[in-house]
């Protein structure tokens, strides 16, 4: 559908024209078919059924319970009546055609590759840190001690709030 790429929605006339061109049927006949399809949907859904179309999706009715709401202007509580709404759940082929989620196996493979790469990087950093610590144990422990003291010396947010000062500022 070339017209679907534009930002304006397709009208009934646009859909009829496209289907007519693809099926070599006159516009009037295509319009009758589309109206018959709509009537069939309405009749089935109003009787509580659902319409499943392989490759497209499922149309079904969902019930909304009555609930309390508020008038936005006055804030006055009001009762909102129960209602029925039509829901459409797109099928896999339809989602794939419009660029929906890709297959789950590709996502799992990518996630696995990312985990493996990050695991290798983490192992390399740990190995490097061990080599450094073994080569100069006194230096490594001397560098680690002030870091602990710095964390302990930093005032907590609760202490700063009691003292009237902002956390982390002196």
Describe the model:
- With 170 residues, this protein is an alpha+beta fold.
- Among the domains are: 2-61 and 84-97, Irregular (HU Protein, Chain A), CATH 4.10.520.10; 102-141.
- The protein is 55% helix and 16% strand.
- It is built from six helices and five strands, in the order ααβββββαααα.
- The strands form two sheets. Strands 1-2-5 form a three-stranded antiparallel sheet.
- β3 and β4 (77-80) form a beta hairpin.
- Mean pLDDT is 73; it is low at 109-126, 132-146 and 165-170.
Give the key terms:
170 residues; alpha+beta; HU Protein, Chain A; 3-stranded antiparallel beta sheet; two-stranded antiparallel ribbon; disordered C terminus
Beta percentage is: 15-25%
H/E topology pattern: HHEEEEEHHHH
Using the coordinates shown, work out and report the CATH topology of one domain. Answer: HU Protein, Chain A
Please state the CA-atom Rg, rounded to the nearest Å.
32 Å
Shape: elongated
Tell me about the largest β-sheet.
Answer: 3 strands, antiparallel
**Class per helix and strand makeup:** alpha+beta
The overall strand count is 5
CATH class of one domain: Few Secondary Structures
Q: Could you tell me how far the N terminus lies from the C terminus, measured between alpha carbons in angstroms?
A: 65 Å
* Count of helical stretches: 6
Low-confidence sequence ranges: 109-126, 132-146, 165-170
Instruction: Give the mean pLDDT.
Output: 73
CATH architecture label name of one domain: Irregular
């Amino acid at each position: 559908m070339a017209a679907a790429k534009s930002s304006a929605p397709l009208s009934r006339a646009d859909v009829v024209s496209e289907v007519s061109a693809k099926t070599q049927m006159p516009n009037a006949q295509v319009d009758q078919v589309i109206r018959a399809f709509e009537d069939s949907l309405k009749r089935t859904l109003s009787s509580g059924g659902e319409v499943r179309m392989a490759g497209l999706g499922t149309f079904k009715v969902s019930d909304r319970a009555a609930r309390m709401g508020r008038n936005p202007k006055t804030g006055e509580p009001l009762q909102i009546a129960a209602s029925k709404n039509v829901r459409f759940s797109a099928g896999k082929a339809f989602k794939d055609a419009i660029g929906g989620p890709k297959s789950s196996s590709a996502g799992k493979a990518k996630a696995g590759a990312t985990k493996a790469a990050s695991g290798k990087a983490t192992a390399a950093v740990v190995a490097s840190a061990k080599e450094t610590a073994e080569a100069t144990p006194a230096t490594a422990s001397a560098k680690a001690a002030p870091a602990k003291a710095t964390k302990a010396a930093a005032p907590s947010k609760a202490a700063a709030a009691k003292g009237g000062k902002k956390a982390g500022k002196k």
